[in-house]
Design a protein that fits this description.
single chain; 685 residues; mainly alpha; six-stranded mixed β-sheet; 30 helices; 57% helix
């Protein structure tokens, strides 16, 4: 029994009847759940469904589903699974075509150098980055619901896939390899990367079949942003050997970032002056161009394609100066024309790569769904999270047959697509045309492209991810818990690895949710004079309390993790069991001297209850009955009420103790305490 000392108390029936009623009030009887169902009815069920046994009902539903898949039902299914059938008939050709064309070509120009750069990050030859910038984009255009989403190679996924590829196909001992040995090593790594894409695509299709699009909510925004920011630091450090011209093996596993830094510092005297000069000049051009594109995005008709300009300048410089032969500068070499033959990945490797495919699938879906949601909210349309699972699952699965590595939506190119004026998925087709022209005709022009330039493109593309750290001060002011989630995830990603950091971030994020349910405060409610509103006593000192009546609100789920606290709090409020612990509540226990005779438990905040929580409510009902306290439950949702009923609640209480609202329960309690006379409550209209 609790409340603030300053709260007003009705000490006699006369006082209780003096509460003013606003104009427009009318009287009715308090409604129990049973009476409400009698008056307004529950969920309707067909009589034949009720009479049929469970197996027959299942067969009937199957027959109805089959009928729905014929004719109009099949067309609705086709519309749902092929979004262009919905938006293409309403496409505004005059208003949108030019914007989609310009944006698609701009993104395609960026895809070419960025795809080759991220291929090196995945430990496969550059041409496979071009394949990954073509097939997934084409497939997502047909299946995706994000109108402003740009898919293709993504640095975080390339880093995760590259670590797995290096572990599955490690660098052979001995520095010098023949050309045949290099080709064999590259072929094995391409096969491993394609198997990763196949495995992640299959997992996403399985999630789509189970309609698990809701899983994206478990990767909260702080987790995703900390993951991408920490991975950007991994990308930066992993590119240092290429920037300096150091032929160092790639470090994998925990503490790989620090191992790479130590190896670079040890080998620094052996760095190549030529590649160091190329890297410095490339960054000196790319970084200012990125900054100009951001600062003058509203004034520029289209962003400056700094990457393609740098690629062309570096290729011409390397060709005219023969840097590859005179200074041993590493170049891209010959890009094979056309497309690779479709090849099914080695299925025998799939069980061994599922542990690597699962985090890749989760990051793919989380980043893509969050990006699509951001731009959908901004441009006032909706996305289907389950359809996104299908789109990215099919994209990874089919593209893996053409030796592509894992792919997803990308932060940089999506922002570029929107800034360049893209309106629909049609921009993806124009992007594919640019990449296709490189694969069919323009590939030889990139023969002399230094790999150091690709490393610089990798680093400059991380700008947006690094700048996410600027949001930390605001996050600290808004929510210290989210700030802690961000920092724990980031430290885990940087210190350990991207995979382990993601797992630690998700677990820690879920633990914060559980801890917040453990720190809930049970609130004692009082009546606002002249209304039927009940509000927490600790927030309003002028609220009214009725002697012998205690109204409590328990605003948290009731499950095995909170059942102990639920028992302690209720025992303390009602003085049951003589518990010595003093839980964190809203007032001293001696605020109302008279013992509790009726308690109303507001269950509107109990979103769900499990078997342990339901048994705790049953035990509370028994303890209240033994103590002579009349227990009333108010505003239980259908799920919670069903769980309590199945657990045997009606064996401990009567249906007349279950009410549809706190107001109805309080009116019944006042009548039971003989303070109100007629059995009525007030409803404001």
């Amino acid at each position: 029994m609790s409340g603030l000392l300053g709260a007003r108390t009705c000490s006699s029936p006369g006082e209780a009847s003096d509460i003013e009623s606003p104009m427009g009030a009318k009287l009715r009887e308090p409604l129990t759940e049973a009476r409400f169902q009698q008056l307004f009815g529950g969920a309707e069920q067909e009589p034949e469904e009720l009479a049929e046994p469970g197996w027959s009902r299942l067969c009937s539903r199957w027959r109805r589903w089959v009928c729905a898949c014929s004719g109009p039902g099949a067309w609705r299914l086709l519309l749902a699974r092929l979004p262009p059938l919905r938006w293409l008939p309403h496409y505004r050709w005059r208003a949108w075509l030019l914007g989609d064309a310009v944006a698609g070509v701009t993104v395609g120009i960026v895809h070419v150098p960025q795809g080759m750069a991220f291929a090196l990050l995945t430990s496969v030859p550059p041409v496979f980055g071009l394949y990954t910038s073509f097939f997934p984009v084409l497939i997502y255009t047909l299946l995706g619901t994000g109108r402003h989403l740009s898919t293709g190679t993504f640095a975080v996924l390339s880093l995760m896939a590259g670590s797995a590829v290096e572990r599955m196909v490690p660098e052979p001992l001995g520095g010098n390899r023949s050309g045949i040995e290099t080709e064999q090593l590259d072929a094995q790594r391409v096969g491993a990367a394609a198997a990763l894409a196949f495995g992640s695509g299959a997992l996403m299709l399985g999630m789509f079949a189970l309609q698990l699009g809701v899983l994206s909510t478990f990767l909260s925004e702080p987790v995703v942003k900390a993951l991408t920011s920490g991975a950007a630091l991994h990308v930066l450090v992993s590119q240092l050997p290429s920037l300096l011209g150091l032929p160092l093996p790639r470090q994998i596993g925990c503490f790989a970032l620090f191992k790479t830094l130590a190896a670079v510092m040890t080998a620094l005297p052996r760095s190549s002056p030529a590649e160091l000069t190329i890297s410095a000049l490339s960054l000196a051009l790319l970084v200012p161009v990125k900054e100009l594109n951001v600062r003058f995005r509203d004034r520029l008709p289209t962003p400056i394609p700094g990457e393609i300009v740098m690629v062309l300048l570096a290729s011409v410089l390397c060709f005219t100066s023969s840097l590859d032969t005179r200074y041993n500068v590493q170049i891209v070499g010959l890009l094979p024309g056309g497309f690779p033959q479709p090849l099914l990945p080695n299925l025998a490797e799939l069980p061994g790569i599922l542990a690597d495919s699962l985090p890749i699938a989760l990051v793919t879906f989380a980043v893509s769904a969050s990006l699509a949601s951001i731009y959908a909210d901004k441009h006032n349309y909706t996305i289907d999270s389950n359809q996104e699972l299908l789109a990215h699952g099919v994209s990874n699965l089919i593209s893996s047959l053409f030796s592509c590595f894992p792919n997803s939506a990308t932060l940089a190119t999506t922002s570029l697509l929107v800034d360049a004026g893209g309106n629909t998925q049609l921009a993806g087709l124009f992007s594919c045309m640019v990449v296709l022209s490189v694969l069919l005709w323009l590939g030889p022009f990139f023969y002399y492209l230094p790999k150091a330039v690709l490393a610089c493109i990798n680093i400059s593309s991380m700008r947006q991810m690094f700048f996410q750290m600027q949001e930390l001060p605001q996050l600290w002011r808004i929510s210290r818990v989210d700030f802690a989630v961000w920092m724990v995830t980031w430290v885990a990603v940087v210190t350990l690895s991207v995979d382990l950091g993601l797992a630690i971030g998700v677990v820690f994020s879920m633990m914060t949710v559980i801890c917040r349910t453990q720190r809930v405060q049970c609130l004692a409610l009082g009546l606002a004079e002249g209304t039927e509103l009940y509000r927490p006593l600790r927030e309003n000192h002028k609220l009214l309390q009725v002697p012998g009546l205690c109204i409590l609100s328990y605003p948290t789920p009731l499950y095995f993790g909170t059942r102990g606290q639920f028992r302690r709090i209720l025992d303390w409020h009602l003085r049951l069991g003589g518990g010595k612990e003093t839980p964190k509540t809203d007032g001293p226990p001696d605020a109302v001297a008279e013992s509790v005779r009726v308690v109303v438990l507001d269950c509107s905040g109990v979103t769900f209850a499990d078997a342990a929580g339901a048994r705790e409510v049953l035990q509370l009902a028994s303890r209240c009955r033994d103590a002579g306290i009349h227990l009333l439950l108010a505003q239980c949702n259908a799920s919670v009420l069903g769980t309590l009923t199945q657990a045997g609640l009606l064996d401990r209480v009567t249906p007349e103790q279950l009410f549809v609202s706190v107001q109805d329960a309080a009116a019944h309690a006042l009548e039971r305490l003989e303070l109100t006379g007629p059995k009525t409550c007030t409803v404001w209209v």
